[in-house]
Design goal:
By secondary structure, the chain is of the alpha+beta class. The chain is built from 2 helices and 5 strands; from the N terminus they run E-E-H-H-E-E-E. It has a 5-stranded mixed beta sheet with strand order 2-1-5-3-4, with helices on one face. The longest helix is centred in the middle third of the chain and has 11 residues.
Amino acid sequence: MATVIIPTPLRKFTSNTSRIIIAGSTVQEVIDNLNIAYPEVRKHIQDNSGAIRPFINIFVGEDDIRTLDSHHTQVDDKSFISIIPAIAGGNAISE
């Protein structure tokens, strides 16, 4: 089981839980099991085809899964998986 760190904007869909221990041997299995436990999370991190949304970054430890084996990245009981939504918006800074 891996520990999933839930970002503040998604905690309203996980009963305000910030860390959840979820079974799975790959990132995909962990995400699938997270979606079973908390169905409302899915639409915020995955598109209709099940792919991770482009503005969602997922890290295992300090490594972005895009630099590893993507959703096939192996995890274990000591793994920390962070779901990090991209931040956008604001005003351009002029010099």
